């Protein structure tokens, strides 16, 4: 039977860069069955974590050997600049290595304090088959924030990448097989979200869904997985604030603001898409920001010098421009970038700054997922915090000030899972990553990043003759 194929056209030049099989519900069921057999009967969940770590490290080395090839697939399919795609693959390797180590550290607990004849053991066990659904903005990196951690915990996975950017997920799975990771442990089903993603979330063989993507789809996955009481962890959208106080290092804050909104063409869940700037420095700050933005290179993502590549597809390009237009109709003042500066040929959008934004305007509230910055001025710390928290999202915010009292007061008052102080879009493998509110729940990275994929089992052991009354607590029965 010939299979329907999904063609991926380059967002930069419209040429076909990939063809992916359009997966069916049957394909999903087959993949889940394979993952379930590998989990229930296979050696992967049963082997010493140290041996699993060796497989994972070999996988990481194979990924490193294929760095340039994998990076170029990301450039072709995502339209992101080559230098950043290479850095993404380096991060993938670091994530796999880190997960390998975490797997060996993962442990339960023992209680010797519950009576001379009794010992309590808490085992930490793999949750089972994990369904993984990922978006198109950081395809390889998002894969690597989930899959190696689930594997290190002893789980098996079925992965549904984005229909636009499935290339690296397929390649990473092939390299896993080359590294000797047994069949059935890493499975990829390409295809559309409403078919493959839906069937995966609804399959009772799946014990947990790990999702990154939009809040809209996240809600669907939570509901679908809830039908068979599967666990969910969802990393969703964001509307992060960059909060700049008058005593900030302005040069650093300008660069931080710029990076926060332009990195990955603004197609970044942790983007700082709102700038909250103290009124006293606002004019100078915006001037310096616009100057810095004009020096960014926008164009062919394969050009080594390019800073911003293409938007993911035409529909998204149009939606970003529509948001800019709407904001201007609602009274926003264009500082730089904008519709005139956008190039339909290549789907390029220049970093766009819109001033005079009020919280009632939709650009203050909605995630645009493009290089569009909404600027609001504040006068007091309390106003800044209230503005930052005036969002359904709660993923990442940054605060810029040289006053530690200001930094800590703001950091503790923000309702986001991540706060950066005098830095932005920063991270460390050890620090948990995730959001609150409409940005989702669950944490990746850090120790939490492997614990997500485990369940606890309590074992209570009685030694010697059990001569007290069953059903009555031992202390009361003596
Ligand atoms: P999306 O539309 O939510 O899609 C994400 C994934 O879900 C894709 O693989 C998609 O498949 C699949 N999907 C769609 N409908 C589904 C359904 N009914 N059941 C199961 N799966 C389904 O998101 P996107 O447009 O790719 O990515 C942009 C969004 O992701 C933004 O909102 C962004 O903030 C968020 N994001 C969040 C994080 C984070 O860590 N918090 C990171 C990156 C991105 P198809 O592609 O085939 O439709
Ligand atoms: Mg989609």
Count of strand segments = 20
* SS element count, helices: 16
Task: Sum up the overall morphology in one term.
Answer: globular
CATH class of the largest domain: Alpha Beta
Q: Into which percentage range does the β-strand content fall?
A: 15-25%
How many domains would you count in the coordinates?
2
Report how far the terminal alpha carbons are from each other.
72 Å
Rounded Rg: 24 Å
Spatial arrangement of strands, main beta sheet:
12-13-14-11-10-16-17
CATH architecture annotation name of the largest domain: 3-Layer(aba) Sandwich
What small molecules does this complex bind?
Answer: NADP nicotinamide-adenine-dinucleotide phosphate, magnesium ion
- For this structure, what is the CATH homologous superfamily of the largest domain? Aldehyde Dehydrogenase, Chain A, domain 1
Largest sheet: 7 strands, mixed
Average per-residue pLDDT, rounded, comes to: 97
- The amount of helix comes to 25-40%
Q: Kindly report the CATH topology of the largest domain.
A: Aldehyde Dehydrogenase, Chain A, domain 1
Low-pLDDT stretches: none
Q: What class do helices, strands and sheet pairing give?
A: alpha/beta
For this entry, give a set of tags.
478 residues, alpha/beta, Aldehyde Dehydrogenase, Chain A, domain 1, Aldehyde Dehydrogenase, Chain A, domain 2, 2 domains, 7-stranded mixed beta sheet, 16 helices, globular, binds NADP nicotinamide-adenine-dinucleotide phosphate, binds magnesium ion
């Amino acid at each position: 039977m010939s299979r329907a194929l999904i063609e991926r056209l380059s967002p930069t030049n419209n040429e076909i860069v990939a063809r992916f099989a359009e997966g069916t519900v049957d394909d999903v069921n087959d993949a889940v069955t394979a993952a379930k057999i590998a989990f229930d009967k296979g050696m992967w969940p049963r082997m010493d974590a140290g041996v699993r770590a060796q497989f994972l490290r070999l996988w990481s080395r194979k990924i490193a050997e294929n760095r340039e090839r994998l990076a170029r697939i990301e450039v072709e399919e995502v339209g992101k600049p080559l230098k950043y795609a290479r850095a993404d693959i380096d991060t993938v390797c670091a994530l796999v290595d880190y997960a390998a180590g975490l797997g060996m550290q993962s442990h339960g607990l023992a209680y010797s304090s519950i009576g001379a004849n009794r010992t309590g053991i808490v085992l930490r066990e793999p949750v089972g088959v994990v369904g993984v659904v990922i978006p198109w903005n950081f395809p390889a990196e998002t894969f690597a924030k989930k899959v190696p951690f689930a594997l290190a915990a002893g789980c098996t996975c079925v992965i549904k990448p984005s229909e636009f950017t499935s290339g690296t997920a397929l390649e990473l799975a092939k390299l896993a097989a080359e590294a000797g990771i047994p069949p059935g442990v890493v499975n990829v089903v390409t295809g559309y979200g409403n078919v493959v993603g839906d069937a995966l979330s609804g399959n009772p063989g799946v014990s947990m869904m790990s999702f990154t993507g939009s809040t809209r789809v996240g809600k669907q996955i939570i509901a679908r997985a809830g039908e068979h009481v599967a666990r969910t962890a969802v990393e969703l959208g964001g509307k992060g604030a960059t909060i700049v106080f008058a005593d900030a290092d302005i040069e650093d804050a300008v660069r931080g603001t710029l990076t926060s909104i332009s990195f990955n063409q603004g197609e970044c869940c942790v983007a700082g898409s709102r700038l909250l700037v103290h009124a006293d420095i606002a004019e100078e700050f915006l001037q310096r920001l616009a100057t810095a933005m004009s020096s960014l290179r926008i164009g062919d993502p394969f050009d080594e010098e390019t800073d911003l590549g293409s938007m993911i597809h035409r529909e998204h390009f149009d939606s970003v421009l529509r948001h800019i237009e709407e904001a201007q109709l609602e009274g926003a003042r264009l500082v730089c970038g904008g519709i005139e500066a956008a190039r339909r040929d290549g789907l390029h959008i220049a970093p766009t700054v819109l001033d005079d934004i009020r919280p009632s305007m939709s650009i203050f509230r909605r995630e645009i997922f493009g290089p569009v910055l909404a600027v609001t001025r504040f006068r007091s710390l309390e106003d800044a915090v209230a503005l930052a928290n005036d969002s359904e999202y709660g993923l990442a915010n940054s605060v810029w000030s040289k006053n530690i009292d200001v930094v800590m007061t703001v950091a503790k008052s923000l309702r986001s899972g991540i706060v950066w102080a005098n830095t932005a879009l920063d991270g460390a493998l050890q620090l948990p990553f995730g959001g609150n509110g409409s940005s989702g729940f669950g944490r990746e990275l850090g120790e939490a990043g492997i614990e997500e994929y485990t369940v606890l089992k309590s074992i209570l052991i009685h030694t010697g003759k059990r001569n007290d009354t069953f059903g009555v607590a031992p202390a009361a029965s003596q």
